[in-house]
Design goal:
This protein has about 90 residues and is mostly helical. It has four helices and no strands.
């Protein structure tokens, strides 16, 4: 019983964390292209980020991966932001 509860708790926590990473990627894309997110136009919006010479398309692409297991964790995102922006966030 305890193992079952622990397993479902870990899965639930991972799911929430990965959803937060996805949401962060969508929000970052929204800010860079200055329009509301559109799931059917996500690839186009990310491409427009590249044309605008934004620093963030790589982060967005990683965050919005369909498979949640391939998304970065928040520490990796912070490291990338610090490298690309030249500042320390923590």
């Amino acid at each position: 019983m305890v193992a079952s509860f622990y397993r479902s708790s870990v899965i639930s926590e991972m799911c929430c964390y990965q959803v937060d990473v996805y949401s962060f990627g969508v929000l970052l894309c929204e800010m860079c292209v200055r329009e509301l997110p559109d799931s059917q136009q996500r690839e186009t919006q990310i491409t427009r980020m590249n044309r605008n010479k934004s620093w963030f398309p790589g982060i967005v692409v990683c965050c919005v991966q369909r498979d949640p297991r391939t998304r970065p964790n928040i520490e990796e995102i912070i490291d990338d932001l610090e490298k690309w922006c030249g500042i320390f966030l923590v």
